[in-house]
Automatic annotation (TrEMBL):
<dbReference type="GO" id="GO:0005524">
    <property type="term" value="F:ATP binding"/>
</dbReference>
<dbReference type="Pfam" id="PF02782">
    <property type="entry name" value="FGGY_C"/>
</dbReference>
<dbReference type="GO" id="GO:0008993">
    <property type="term" value="F:rhamnulokinase activity"/>
</dbReference>
<dbReference type="GO" id="GO:0005829">
    <property type="term" value="C:cytosol"/>
</dbReference>
<keyword id="KW-0684">Rhamnose metabolism</keyword>
<comment type="similarity">
    <text>Belongs to the FGGY kinase family.</text>
</comment>
<keyword id="KW-0418">Kinase</keyword>
<dbReference type="InterPro" id="IPR043129">
    <property type="entry name" value="ATPase_NBD"/>
</dbReference>
<dbReference type="GO" id="GO:0004370">
    <property type="term" value="F:glycerol kinase activity"/>
</dbReference>
<feature type="domain" description="Carbohydrate kinase FGGY N-terminal">
    <location>
        <begin position="12"/>
        <end position="254"/>
    </location>
</feature>
<dbReference type="InterPro" id="IPR013449">
    <property type="entry name" value="Rhamnulokinase"/>
</dbReference>
<dbReference type="InterPro" id="IPR018484">
    <property type="entry name" value="FGGY_N"/>
</dbReference>
<dbReference type="Pfam" id="PF00370">
    <property type="entry name" value="FGGY_N"/>
</dbReference>
<keyword id="KW-1015">Disulfide bond</keyword>
<feature type="domain" description="Carbohydrate kinase FGGY C-terminal">
    <location>
        <begin position="265"/>
        <end position="457"/>
    </location>
</feature>
<keyword id="KW-0067">ATP-binding</keyword>
<keyword id="KW-0808">Transferase</keyword>
Length: 489
């Protein structure tokens, strides 16, 4: 990767998920004659996870931001070694969570995690003031007990502070500038899905300060440049720009879906599975609300029409439990053993809220199977097969419902993110949906992050179709055809 000439410099992608984060360098190389490609280089990885603090589940933001600075310093050093300069920095993370910052920029407390139970306690009170049907008709947001609107309803004092969603909080700590990026704003329950602005009537109804969130910024716009102390600590020039990308990691991932045509569905598969289609306008009717589909902003004003479905959190939590019990299970061996088991085994509701909090996941899965009148053998391979069969079935149901509600028909399913490496899950998804599954790229989120930065810098041009063509030219993909004998009748 070193030694390639980079058009417009290189781009630093800060990409943080609920269990880990990384800082990556993205390079756009080539020209008109040879065709451009984009490549990634990981310069720093670090763990992330919830911590118990004052009786609640929080993110250790101070530690997280320290890792971001370490990663940016590593990015600066790596770029300099190859004779490149970092043109900009983009940040994406998970959605809904926020930190409260006072007028002097001090973070009131470590941000709560969506895995904390506090949001659930406020749901009834919010719905007394704002009927769920009214909420959905404006925001188009899927009901989840941890949506930002419910978390905010538990706050005792919001005067004199602003709420910054996690990627915006990181950008603020880097630049001193307060903004709210649109794709993440759309996950708060306080964002108008049609106008693309804050739903100010909801702020009034809930007694929230009208300036609780900063002004909205779109992907590709510049947040600001580095504060002098950040530049000194990272070795980056103070004029290095922080550029808004699809700061909700799913928005960046969907931007990098390598689709050739418009009739595609996508599954961003990681800790959660985000399953849906891309639309030009939101679906805000009552049928969509009752099906609990969400209308979240994507890059270039698109709508990510999707549902949150349980994800590989189930599998990683099982591995964590087995390791704590002294039985460390290697994933490759687990998947091979699970693939050898016959089809038609017991399944669970993979997106049941009972699986949100960390705990003994294998026992909770076996308990859910027993509650359904079946028995799951006490063997890791059986538990893994149950998880993957359940996810594939949930994907198929969700995609069929998305097509029905949106009127958009699809011919191919793109799986991006970590789940694209899980060959068994990809094949089971092809079997369950009856559609071709195209797996990859694994690093879709970071690629989408880099592509928006590169377009803002003028290193590439075009809208989503052109960005997706660049992804196809840059990464290896694998296709899975449905095995007709295994499809559901």
């Amino acid at each position: 990767m070193n030694g390639q000439s980079s058009a417009g410099g290189v781009f630093a992608a800060v990409d943080i998920g609920a269990s880990s984060g990384r800082v990556m360098l993205g390079r756009v190389t080539g020209g008109r004659a040879s065709g451009k490609t984009v490549s990634l280089e990981t310069v720093h990885r670090f763990p992330n996870g919830v911590v118990e603090l004052d009786g609640g589940l929080h993110w250790d933001f101070d530690a997280l931001f320290g890792e971001v600075l370490t990663g940016l310093a590593a990015a600066a050093e790596t770029a300099a070694a190859s004779g490149d300069r970092i043109a900009s920095i983009g940040i994406d993370t998970w959605a809904v969570d926020y930190g409260l910052v006072d007028a002097s920029g001090v973070l009131r407390t470590q941000p709560f995690s969506y895995r904390d139970e506090r949001g659930r306690t406020a749901v009834a009170d919010v719905h007394k003031v704002l009927d769920p049907a009214r909420l959905y008709a404006t925001t188009g947001l899927q009901f989840l007990q941890f949506n930002t609107i419910y978390q905010l309803a538990t706050e005792r004092e919001l005067r004199g502070v602003q709420a910054l969603l996690i990627p915006d909080l990181i950008a603020f700590k880097l630049t001193g500038q307060r903004r709210t990026e649109a794709t993440n704003a759309s996950t708060t329950g306080l964002f108008d899905a049609v106008t693309g602005e804050w739903a100010t009537e909801f702020f009034r109804a809930l007694g929230l300060p009208k300036n609780l969130f900063p002004a909205i910024i779109q992907p590709g716009e510049t947040v600001g440049t580095l504060l002098p102390e950040i530049a000194a600590r990272t070795g980056l020039p103070a004029e290095t720009a922080v550029v808004a990308v699809g700061s909700h990691d799913t928005a960046s991932a969907v931007a990098a879906v390598p689709a050739r045509q418009e009739d595609f569905a996508y599954i961003s598969s990681g800790t959660w599975s985000l399953v849906g289609v891309e639309l030009d306008s939101p679906v805000l009717d009552e049928s969509s609300r009752l099906a609990n589909f969400t209308n979240e902003r994507g890059v270039d004003g698109t709508i990510r029409y999707l549902r949150n479905v349980g994800g590989l959190w189930l599998l990683s939590e099982c591995q964590r439990t087995w390791a704590a019990e002294g039985h460390r299970q290697e994933l490759t061996a687990l998947l091979e053993s699970a693939a050898a088991l016959p089809a038609g085994g017991p399944q669970i509701n993979a997106d049941d809220p009972a699986f949100i909090a960390p705990d003994n996941m294998p026992e909770r899965i076996r308990s859910a199977v027993r509650a359904g009148g079946a028995v799951l053998p006490d063997r890791p391979a059986a538990v893994v097969r149950c998880i993957l069969d359940s996810l594939a079935a949930a994907y198929a149901r969700t995609l069929a419902r998305a097509e029905e509600l949106s009127g958009k028909r699809t011919s191919v399913v793109h799986i991006v993110g970590g789940g694209s490496q899980n060959r068994l899950l990809c094949q089971l998804t092809a079997d369950a949906t009856g559609k071709t599954v195209v797996a990859g790229p694994v690093e879709a989120t970071a690629l989408g992050n880099v592509l928006i930065q590169a377009r803002a810098a003028g290193a590439i041009n075009g809208r989503l179709a052109e960005l997706r063509a660049l992804v196809r030219a840059s990464v290896g993909l694998e296709s899975y055809e449905p095995k007709l004998a295994l499809q559901s009748p």
